[in-house]
Amino acid sequence: MLQPNQYHSKKTFSPREQQIALGPEHPYSRAVSRLYPRLVERSRELLEGGVAFLDATGVFDEVRVDVYSDSCCHYNDVGNRILVDLIVKEIGRDPNRECVGDFEVANSRYDEDRRDRSPGDQEPDELQEKIMKRCHSYRL
Questions:
Q1: Alpha-helical runs (H) found in the chain
Q2: Which residue, 15, 76, 112, 129, is most buried by CB atoms nearer than 10 A?
Q3: How many whole angstroms separate alpha carbon 16 and alpha carbon 58?
């Protein structure tokens, strides 16, 4: 995954976020401005070559609230939540995964398996472990 960076962004920054997130003299400012376009181009080549890759650089482009927490590259809670949601959605598109989602999905699978269980079958803890391995779940 290529993560979003404020120095390679179409986002409209609020005055407050500009002060927090944009440091024109920050060493990353020049490096990101110079290297990210090449990384984005390379990510397209990876995708065309069949590599599972996520270019998340534009995920904040239309977001009006502040998402950056410093002038380096770190996100605040809102930014982290947006990025995690995108990653989970992208992982969910992977046809090789049985299920992806929140703990409600895992709990639903657990309940289904428990209903089908006969006395003497797997103990609930073993069953829970089996379900969690089968259902890759994420929580914020």
A1: 15-21, 27-48, 77-92, 103-115, 124-134
A2: 76
A3: 21
